[in-house]
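During the second half of the funding period, the structural biology subgroup turned its attention to how the target accommodates small molecules. The most pressing case was flavin-adenine dinucleotide, which had performed well in the primary screen but for which no bound structure existed. We therefore specified the complex as follows and requested a full 3D prediction, including the ligand pose.
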Amino acid sequence: MITHDIIIIGGGLAGLRAALEAHNRGTDVAVISKVHPIRSHSVAAQGGVNASLVHDDSWEAHALDTVRGSDYLADQDAVEVLCREAPERVLEMEHWGTLFSRTRDGHIAQRPFGGAGFPRTCYAGDRTGHNLLHTLHEQVLRARIKIYREWLVTRLVVDGGRCTGFIAMHTPDSKLEAFRAKATVLATGGYGRIYQRSTNAIINRGYGISLAYHAGVPLQDMEFVQFHPTTLLGTNILITEGARGEGGYLYNNRHERFMEKYATGMMELAPRDIVARSIQTEVDEGRGFDGGYVQLDITHLGEKKIEERLGGIRQISIDFAGIDPVKEPIPVQPGQHYSMGGVSCDANGATPLEGLYAAGECACISVHGANRLGGNSLLETIVFGKRAGEHAAGYVQETDVQGENAHLDSLASEEQNISDLMGGDGESFAVVRDELRSVMQQDVGVFRNQAGLQKAVETIRELREKGRNVRVKSGATSFNFELLNAIELKGMLELGQVIAKGALAREESRGAHYRTDFLERDDEHWLRHTLAYQTPEGPRLEYKEVTITQFQPKQREY
Ligand SMILES: Cc1cc2nc3c(=O)[nH]c(=O)nc-3n(C[C@H](O)[C@H](O)[C@H](O)COP(=O)(O)OP(=O)(O)OC[C@H]3O[C@@H](n4cnc5c(N)ncnc54)[C@H](O)[C@@H]3O)c2cc1C
């Protein structure tokens, strides 16, 4: 059995920032991750991170943009924390070594981003996540924080109403081990890969979120799934909003800048939910190109600017679509991108389960409400990663580690679960997974309606039955990817069910959740958060109030 004061599950930005903070506060902290930390999805972030750094901007303006962007579902006290602490966290990253792009006079350069009234997105070319993650990884190495790499956490251990650690599998030899901790921090990222078309890394299966769900923690606002307007046709690799921030145009097959019809003021820089729906509408009504896409044109920016500010997406377009954006428009379509919902927690990362914290994309605090603004998610990882590390460190000073017996019991039952999965005739995980992805894409996508959502709920229920018969044919004991996929599939099916059920229940359109049978936002009945609890019959939904402080809900106009 391995024991630490605090163990952080996840080596992305939120996890590493939490680890560093807990370490700086004198606790014995370790990080555990299913891949090497710098392979976490944070590394792929392109466009930038928001902070009101200059005189003409303010945290209040940032907060107003965030709340409007969220379609008024964000908790405004949490948004205040996010926007107030942003400048300090971003400058701290710079002091630790992040190579932000610069203005002519040497300040951190900031670009316009969707839904923002001010250019406040700080960037490092279009490789911002790469720069930030390497900076934090260096700091974690420098602090000599223990990192357990290539361990998949398979379940949390709860003893006497407290989370006392977890069970994890070491993928190089498939051995299970119990980890005990006074506090556990979930920083496991999003679940993009339960959709067919996603910008997310293939490791983003949301298993961390389902760990909390199993431990009795509610999942919040899971029906709010962000679809990014511009993903590369074919692979759905992200083409950053920075491309539009730098002045890119969207065209339909009649060479019209169609955003004029949908968001006359902000055009291509309207929030993501609006741009994604506009593109989908153009395609659905026959004004897209064959194959279901529109064009993103940045040719007029010129090679120098493209190389300097958008070099990464130029390379991606050349490598994956054979198109050089300096010469031709990029074919783009919407794809799943981000999970606004997640493990319910407060602005200190504390979940309702004592000893369990959450931060980053897996958490729902909620600062993004029904629709996240670009650049606010990287910000969330460093602001709330720090806060979770800080509060977990405070908590462990007054707590003992418990639950040795509970760990041994959990270890034994997890060993049994895994041996039940192995061998024999059964379903292939890939068949069930692909069916899940397809129903999520078709019926729980950009546009939703009752019939489709009911079908999705029913299909996923059947898939969960089928999922019980999944068996692993490969007997490999080292890096058995079939086994890892089979383990995580269970969580994917559960999250799909929570998302579809929450979306079916929510009879309104708000932010990224758009019902063609309930076109209006309905504050009277639905200005509230969804909480999904696990039960043997599937998710049980409850609701809770949204915190409103300074911004009263208004109609969004862009
Ligand atoms: C292509 C792309 C571009 C983006 N660009 C931007 C941008 O420009 N600006 C912005 O604000 N946001 C952007 N985002 C969103 C943002 O990057 C992410 O929300 C954020 O980086 C998530 O960080 P995280 O630390 O929460 O999770 P991740 O970076 O996803 O890390 C999750 C970690 O958890 C570990 N893990 C997961 N499950 C387990 C388990 N069961 N056991 C052990 N370990 C586990 C993984 O190994 C990994 O280390 C982008 C996202 C994508 C996909």
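Two results from this model are relevant to the next phase. The longest helix spans residues 481-505. The CA atoms of residues 162 and 354 lie 5 Å apart.
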